[in-house]
Amino acid sequence: MSPPERRDFIYRHLHEHRTVSISELVELLNVSHMTVRRDIRILEDEGKVISITGGVQLNDALRQELPWSEKALINHRNKRALGKYAASLVKDGQVVYLDAGTTTFEIAQVLAERFNLTIVTNDFSITHYLMNKPQLNLFHTGGQVDKRNYSCVGNTAAMVLRTLNVDIAFISTSSWDLEHGISTPHEEKVFVKQMLLEIARRKILISDSSKYGKYGMFRVCPLSDLNDIVCDGQLPMSEQKQLRETGLKLHIVDV
Description:
GO terms for molecular function: DNA binding; DNA-binding transcription factor activity. InterPro entries: Carb_Metab_HTH_regulators, DeoR-like_C, DeoR_HTH, NagB/RpiA_transferase-like, Tscrpt_reg_HTH_DeoR_CS, WH-like_DNA-bd_sf, WH_DNA-bd_sf. This protein is an alpha/beta fold and about 260 residues long. The chain has helices at about 5-15, 20-30, 35-45, 70, 75-85, 100-110, 125-130, 155-160, 185-200, 235-245; strands spanning about 20, 50, 55-60, 95-100, 120, 135-140, 145, 150-155, 165-170, 175, 180-185, 200-205, 220, 230, 250-255. The longest helix has 15 residues, at about 5-15. The chain starts with a helix and ends with a strand.
């Protein structure tokens, strides 16, 4: 494994486990302690991780998202359960927006077997998956292409959404919490997500718990702008309590 591949592995592993010991990384990567420490130092210089005694943890200030292909491998069991539950919230005849993401892709796989639905998305993977489902109406936003995430972002995509009335929007994110709301390290994503808040009758954040407590540079909205949050049961009970106290409808999915 090359040095860039090792650092990619460490960063991806931290997205799933948040904190990991140097000894564990030495065993997983089959390299020396010195090599792991050198990789961690480079990741730390890039602002992606923070060194702690005997290990390393993900930096809560998210600088960069993983590409779609790598995110799809993380917490897949949780995402599949969240997607199945989220799809159950959709009623026949609705116009449904699926935001770009690997969890919303799981929703798409369930909705693919439904009838009498219109799906709107900015995600190329979702579009490709649903392309051969003739019983569904399908719209893609177009716009600036985000090659890492197989999606369209920016003002052009947002302007297409402005022309639509959406019944239920499933909004994805790489980072969220009570203090920072929904945020992202990429400015171009803000336009699309904020437009959804304007046009959708029901706005649902769907995210696995590993993304809670992180924040990106660009703020999308406070959590109070949402109607629902769908998350897994690994979200700490103290956070669940605080979220419910805000008046949000919190759906905790057992995995």
